[in-house]
Write a sequence for this structure.
């Protein structure tokens, strides 16, 4: 823990942590040492981890990187963090930066300012984004400011930043990790998962984060496998699908090359590669950007200046609500609330929200058909490009930014597990990731395959 706390101090320029908790960390580390000396304690005893600021931590400021939560100190702990720290003995180093309410793909919407990617293009000082929304988690892991970090993924927020920073990120099946105590963005899409340096580390962390929780009604009661045990396991005979529809027009040559390189590695390890079709892929992004804002607008209704964090003045209660929300929410969050309330409003509900839900069912069915035909996992690029520059896509057209999620949103729409593993570099020396999407509750296959590629 001490080595990581020192590294955090040296790397403050990255803006990865929004809160450092050194005293707490040292106390937790001492307790872990005590347990180790007595031969007791959990599987993560003493391991220093960072926590995305979307996870409620009891008595420790939790903001979702939004002004509206101000210095909210939750009186409760999220299930995932309580399993990591209280049950399994890990040490919390602090809270990590993210896009405001996890809305974004570059970590530029945080009220604490952008996070920098520790990677740079060759012979260039240009500052790059770490991806988002779990940009602080990815940057901190890549820069060695923690051994691993918690993250969340609603449309790619674990996998895309992992790809941009050369780290491993796994979004488990919807229902695998409890959402209890995680600030809600889009409840039917949100899932927690780890970002780590290696597939093995990700497997170890996922085992501690996963598991049934009666406090989350969508949490699934299934035994949590020993994920670490499958890392290094043979993938001989596995059938890997390469979806035709992910071969986008204008896809950079280096992404295409990486993709076929990844396929070759899996083939060399004994897997069988087959072309598959996921015909509704092109509707995934537009449908996601209806479903996610719709749920967000509903979830964010609770921030009214009464129950949590910030409160602005007003001459009456309506004015107080309006002023609080105007001051408290950033531009991207306000945009999502407006889109969300619009697509849910009477008269538009059928045309947008209901239609998007139908599309979602079709996307899910595309995957089901593939898996029913014997495919074990699907291999795709994780992102359409390497990390881009700070400010490069955060301009006036939000669609530019949304397009970054093109390969990742499908897994959330279908509730399926997805992993991003570092697989190579672009011409500028920046990391690129490949994604594997699996059958429901089959994170193990993804970890076995990911270990071949990394
Ligand atoms: N970039 C996507 C969005 O802005 C996904 C974010 C996420 O997964 N939390 O909605």
């Amino acid at each position: 823990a001490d080595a990581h706390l020192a590294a955090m101090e040296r790397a403050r320029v990255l803006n990865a942590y929004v809160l450092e908790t050194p005293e707490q960390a040292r106390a937790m580390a001492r307790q872990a040492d005590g347990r180790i000396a007595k031969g007791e304690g959990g599987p993560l005893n003493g391991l220093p981890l960072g926590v995305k600021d979307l996870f409620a931590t009891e008595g420790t400021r939790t903001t979702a990187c939004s002004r509206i939560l101000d210095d909210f100190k939750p009186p409760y702990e999220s299930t995932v963090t309580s399993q990591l720290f209280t049950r399994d003995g890990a040490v919390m180093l602090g809270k990590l930066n993210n896009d405001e309410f996890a809305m974004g793909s570059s970590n530029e919407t945080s009220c604490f300012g952008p996070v920098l990617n520790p990677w740079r293009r060759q012979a260039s000082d240009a500052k790059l984004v770490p991806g988002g929304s779990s940009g602080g988690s990815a940057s901190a892991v890549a820069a060695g400011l923690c051994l691993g970090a918690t993250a969340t993924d609603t449309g790619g927020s674990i996998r895309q930043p992992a790809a941009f920073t050369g780290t491993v990120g796994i979004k488990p099946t919807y229902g695998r990790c409890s959402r209890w105590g995680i600030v809600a963005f889009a409840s039917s899409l949100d899932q927690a998962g780890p970002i780590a340096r290696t597939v093995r580390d990700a497997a170890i962390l996922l085992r501690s984060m996963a598991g049934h929780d009666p406090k989350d009604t969508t949490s699934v009661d299934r035994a949590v496998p020993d994920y670490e045990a499958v890392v290094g396991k043979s993938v001989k005979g596995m059938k890997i699908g390469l979806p035709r529809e992910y071969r986008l027009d204008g896809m950079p040559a280096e992404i295409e090359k990486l993709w076929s390189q990844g396929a070759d590695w899996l083939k060399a390890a004994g897997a069988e590669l087959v072309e598959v079709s996921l015909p509704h892929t092109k509707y995934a992004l537009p449908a996601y950007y209806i479903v996610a804002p719709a749920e967000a607008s509903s979830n964010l209704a609770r921030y009214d200046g009464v129950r949590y964090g910030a409160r602005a003045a007003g001459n009456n209660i309506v004015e107080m609500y309006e002023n609080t929300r105007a001051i408290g929410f950033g531009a991207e969050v306000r945009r999502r609330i407006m889109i969300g309330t619009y697509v849910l409003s009477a008269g538009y509900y059928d045309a947008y929200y209901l239609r998007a839900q139908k599309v979602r069912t079709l996307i899910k069915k595309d995957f089901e058909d593939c898996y029913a035909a014997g495919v074990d996992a699907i291999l795709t690029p994780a992102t359409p490009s390497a990390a881009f520059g700070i400010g490069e896509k955060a301009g006036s057209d939000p669609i530019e930014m949304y397009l970054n999620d093109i390969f990742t949103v499908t897994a959330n729409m279908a509730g399926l597990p997805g992993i991003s593993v570092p697989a190579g570099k672009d011409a500028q020396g920046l990391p690129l990731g490949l994604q594997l999407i699996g059958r429901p509750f089959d994170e193990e296959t993804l970890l076995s395959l990911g270990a071949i590629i990394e």
User: Anything to note?
Assistant: The mean pLDDT is 97.
